[in-house]
Design goal:
Blueprint: H1 10-17, H2 22-31, E1 48-55, H3 62-71, H4 76-91, E2 95-96, H5 97-104, H6 108-116, E3 120-127, H7 145-159, E4 164-168, H8 174-187, E5 191-195, H9 199-213, E6 217-220, H10 226-237, E7 243-246, E8 258-264, H11 282-293, E9 296-301, H12 306-313, E10 318-322, E11 333-338, H13 339-344, E12 348-349, E13 352-353, H14 354-365, E14 369-373, E15 382-385, E16 402-404, E17 409-411, E18 418-420, E19 433-436, H15 440-450, E20 456-459, H16 469-478, E21 484-487, E22 500-505, H17 519-531, E23 542-547, H18 553-559, H19 563-576, E24 583-592, H20 595-606, E25 615-621, E26 627-628, E27 631-641, H21 647-663, E28 671-676
Parallel strand pairs: 4-9, 4-10, 5-7, 5-8, 6-7, 8-9, 11-23, 14-21, 14-22, 20-21, 22-23
Antiparallel strand pairs: 1-2, 1-3, 12-13, 15-19, 16-17, 17-18, 24-27, 24-28, 25-27, 26-27
Helix pairs in contact: 1-2, 4-5, 7-8, 9-16, 17-18
C-alpha cells in the first residue's frame, strides 16, 4: 500500500489487517521508526445559500416604479410577478425566489426575462438552516397563588445557590414557573438551558416558549444534521439565543454565560446515556455544569427519582411542591381491570376489556380524545409454533424476534437485523405459527376494527423516523385531528393535551417483569405520568389499567396517587439490599465473540478486587440477554458504600486490572465497558 501512496488513513489500515486492531499495528510500526502519524482536521461545514430576488435601486423610486407598471401592462405574467414581489417585500424580510414563483404561479424563465430587462437581480444569500419564525401574538406568563408561592421558594433557594426539586403533580403548571425563572434569567443578561428527556417533547414546549419569549429560542437534539449543529453552536457562542431547549446532549453546548438550567421530567431514564460512550446521566451532569457556571438549577417532576427526593430529605436540595392541578382540575380516577377475571367472565374482546371499549366509545361520543399505552413496539413481541413450541430467535443475539406487520418481517430490537416472517416451522415442519402477546401495531389494527370511524394514529419509534414527524403528529392531536393516539412511553412524557379524558394502559404486567432493582420505581413513574395526560382542563379524566396483578403494592399506590407511601416502601427495600441512593454502582461489561474467552477474562478481572467491607462484588454472570451482535457478554457489578473514602483507590485499581487484562495476548480482543451509576 505504501508503495502506491505516501500516506494512508487509519480506516485503510483496518481494512488491511482486518481482525487485528489497527491502532496496535500502527503503534508497533511507530515504535520501530517505520511510520509517523499526523492528524488533519477538515472543515466540512458549508453555509446554506438560497436565491433571493431584489428589485434594482432605480425602481425603488415611486415615479420610476409607476412608469414600469405602465410598461408591463401588456405583459400580464410579468406584471403579476412584479406585483407579487412588491407585496412580499412589504411583509417578508427579503423575497425568496421559490416563494415568489410559487405565489405568482410563474416560471423561472419569466423571472429571468425580468432580470434580463434590468428590473430584478437574483443574489445567493447565506441563510440559517434552522429558521423558527413565531409571528403570532405574544402571551403573558401569569402565576396563580400556589405557583407564586413555589416561585418565591425557588428564588430564595437560588439566592443561597442551592438546587431545587420542584415536585408538582401532573397538570399543576410547573411549566409556568419555569417560564418565570427564564424571564428572570434573560433579564439578568444570561442564557438558560431547558432539558427534556425526549425529542418528541421539544416541539410542543418550544411553541409555548416562543409564544412568551419570541424568536431568540434555540433547539438542539440528536436528529439534527452536522451542519445544523454547527449553526446552533455558533449562535450560542454569539449569544443569539437566550434559551436553548434540547435533549440530554444539549449539556455539551458552548454556553457563554449560563445562568439557569431546567431539567424537566428529571426522573426519566432517557437522561441516561447507555450506548455509546460517554455513559452519563444528563441530570447529574447538569448539576455539575450548574456548579461550574455558578448557575441556578431546578429539577422538576410529578414523580421524582428516589435519589432526588432523598437528596431533599438530606438537605442537599430544596423541596418545592405543587399539590393542586392548575385551574382546580382534579386528578384522574384510576380503575384497575383484572384481565384474568375478564377472560373468565367472557368480558374480553381480544386485547381490550369490555370496560375499556365502553369507555373509549363514551369518550368518542363526547368529542374527547383517547390515549392507549402499550410499552412494546411492533405487532407481536414473539411468535411460536403451536405444534412443537419453537420460537424464532435472532441469529446474532439471544433474543426472540418481534414481528412487524407493516414490513411483514421479523425484527431484532437489539442489533436491528431483519428477516422474512416464517410461516413454516423449521423444527417440525408445521404451519401453526401463532403471534404471541401484542405491540403497538396490533393495538392500532384492533382499535381501527372496533372503531372504524375513529381517526387513529400510532406514536412510537417505528413511526417517528424523521425529525419533523414528531411535530406533525403532536400538532394534529392538539388540533383534534386525531381521536385515538396509540403509543409507547413516548406518549407518557410531559405532553399537554387539553381534550384527553381517557387513558388506557393495556398490559401493565409486562412493565413489572423486568429484572431491574428500579422496576417498581419505573412502573410507578410510567403509570402515574401516563395517567396525568387525562383530564387536564375542564373534566375529570379516567384511567383504565388492564393487568393480572391487581393487588401489586405499586399498582395500588398508582391508583391512589400516593407517592410518599411508594417512596417509603421502596426506600426500606433499597436500604436493606444495598441499592442506590445508599450505595454507588459500577457495572463492568465484557464482550467477546467466544464465550469461553469472555468468561475467563471476566473471572480474571473479578479476581482480587479490592477486599474491603464497604465494597461488594457480584459476578461475573451472564446478563439476561447474554449475546448481542454476535458478542458474548459477562457482567460484574460493584456496590460501593457512599460513605467510603476509597473511590479513588478503586478507580486506580480498576484501571490497572483492565490494562493488565487487555495487554494479555489471549484477551487483547476483549471489550471492557465501565458504566458508573448504570441504571
Amino acid at each position: 500500500m505504501l508503495k502506491k501512496t505516501t500516506d494512508i488513513t487509519l480506516d485503510e489500515v483496518q481494512k488491511i489487517v482486518q481482525d487485528t486492531s489497527a491502532w496496535k499495528v500502527v503503534n508497533s510500526l511507530i515504535d520501530k521508526g517505520l511510520v509517523s502519524v499526523y492528524e488533519n482536521l477538515n472543515e466540512n461545514y458549508k453555509p446554506k445559500k438560497e436565491n433571493y430576488v431584489f428589485i434594482l435601486p432605480v425602481y425603488e423610486k415611486e415615479e420610476n416604479l409607476k412608469v414600469l407598471l405602465n410598461q408591463l401592462d401588456k405583459a400580464p405574467k410579468q406584471l403579476n410577478i412584479l406585483l407579487t414581489y412588491l407585496h412580499l417585500n412589504q411583509t417578508e424580510h427579503g423575497v425568496l425566489q421559490s416563494d415568489l414563483l410559487k405565489l405568482a404561479e410563474a416560471s423561472s424563465a419569466q423571472l429571468k426575462s425580468l432580470c434580463d430587462k434590468g428590473i430584478f437581480e437574483i443574489r445567493k444569500i447565506e441563510v440559517d438552516r434552522l429558521r423558527f419564525e413565531y409571528t403570532g401574538e405574544r402571551v403573558s406568563n401569569t402565576l396563580n397563588g400556589l405557583q407564586e408561592k413555589a416561585y418565591q421558594q425557588t428564588t430564595e433557594s437560588f439566592n443561597v445557590h442551592k438546587p431545587v426539586l420542584l415536585k408538582g403533580i401532573t397538570g399543576s403548571g410547573k411549566t409556568h414557573i419555569y417560564f418565570k425563572l427564564i424571564e428572570d434569567c434573560i433579564a439578568s443578561g444570561k442564557q438558560a438551558l431547558y432539558l427534556l428527556p425526549e425529542i418528541a417533547l421539544t416541539a410542543q414546549i418550544i411553541r409555548k416558549l416562543r409564544s412568551v419569549f419570541g424568536n431568540r429560542i434555540g433547539m438542539y437534539h440528536s436528529r439534527f444534521s452536522n451542519n445544523e449543529r454547527v449553526e446552533v453552536w455558533r449562535k450560542i457562542q454569539q449569544k443569539q439565543y437566550d434559551v436553548v431547549i434540547g435533549a440530554r446532549s444539549a449539556i455539551f453546548l458552548p454556553f457563554v454565560d449560563l445562568g439557569l438550567i431546567i431539567v424537566d421530567e428529571e426522573h426519566d431514564s432517557s437522561y441516561k446515556q447507555q450506548e455509546p460512550a460517554p455513559r452519563y446521566n444528563a441530570r447529574d451532569a447538569a448539576l455539575y455544569l450548574a456548579n461550574t457556571y455558578k448557575a441556578n438549577i431546578i429539577l422538576g417532576s410529578a414523580t421524582p427519582s428516589l435519589e432526588s427526593y432523598y437528596n431533599t430529605q438530606q438537605g442537599k436540595y430544596t423541596l418545592v411542591e405543587l399539590n393542586e392541578r392548575y385551574g382546580n382540575a382534579a386528578l384522574p380516577t384510576v380503575k384497575l381491570i383484572d384481565t384474568k377475571q375478564e377472560i373468565i367472565e367472557k368480558r374480553q374482546n381480544g386485547i381490550f376489556s369490555l370496560s375499556l371499549i365502553n369507555a373509549i366509545k363514551s369518550s368518542l361520543e363526547n368529542k374527547k380524545q383517547v390515549i392507549l399505552f402499550q410499552n412494546r413496539r411492533g405487532y407481536s413481541p414473539f411468535s411460536m409454533c403451536m405444534s412443537c413450541g419453537w420460537v424464532p430467535h435472532c441469529k446474532y443475539c439471544d433474543v426472540s424476534l418481534t414481528y412487524h406487520k407493516i414490513s411483514d418481517q421479523l425484527h431484532c430490537h437489539y442489533c436491528g437485523s431483519k428477516s422474512p416472517y416464517i410461516r413454516i416451522c423449521p423444527a417440525c415442519g408445521g404451519n401453526k405459527i401463532v403471534s404471541k402477546s401484542f405491540g403497538t401495531e396490533k393495538v392500532e389494527d384492533d382499535i381501527k376494527l372496533l372503531f372504524p370511524n375513529a381517526r387513529v394514529q400510532r406514536f412510537d419509534w417505528d413511526v417517528m423516523r424523521t425529525k419533523n414527524k414528531y411535530n406533525e403528529v403532536i400538532r394534529q392531536f392538539e388540533k383534534g385531528e386525531i381521536d385515538i393516539l396509540v403509543g409507547t412511553q413516548m406518549v407518557v412524557k410531559g405532553l399537554d393535551f387539553e381534550h384527553v379524558n381517557l387513558v388506557g394502559v393495556l398490559s401493565a404486567d409486562s412493565l413489572l417483569s423486568y429484572p431491574d432493582f428500579r422496576v417498581n420505581e419505573r412502573v410507578f413513574q410510567l403509570l402515574e405520568q401516563v395517567s396525568g395526560r387525562a383530564g387536564r382542563k375542564d373534566a375529570i379524566g379516567n384511567v383504565i389499567i388492564q393487568l393480572y396483578k391487581t393487588n401489586h403494592p405499586t399498582i395500588l399506590q398508582v391508583r391512589s396517587h400516593d407517592y410518599l407511601s411508594f417512596y417509603n416502601q421502596e426506600m426500606d427495600m433499597r436500604k436493606e439490599f444495598l441499592y442506590p441512593p445508599f450505595t454507588r454502582l459500577i457495572k463492568i461489561t465484557l464482550k467477546h465473540k467466544k464465550q469461553e474467552i469472555v468468561l475467563e477474562a471476566a473471572n480474571m478481572l473479578a479476581k482480587g478486587m479490592i477486599e474491603n467491607p464497604k465494597i461488594v462484588v457480584f459476578g461475573p454472570a451472564e446478563p439476561p440477554i447474554a449475546r448481542v451482535r454476535n458478542l458474548y457478554l459477562q457482567e460484574i457489578l460493584l456496590k460501593i458504600n457512599k460513605d467510603t473514602n476509597i473511590i479513588q483507590q478503586l478507580k486506580n485499581d480498576l484501571k490497572h486490572k483492565i490494562a493488565l487484562l487487555t495487554t494479555t495476548k489471549s484477551f487483547s480482543q476483549v471489550q471492557v465497558i465501565l458504566d458508573v451509576d448504570p441504571y
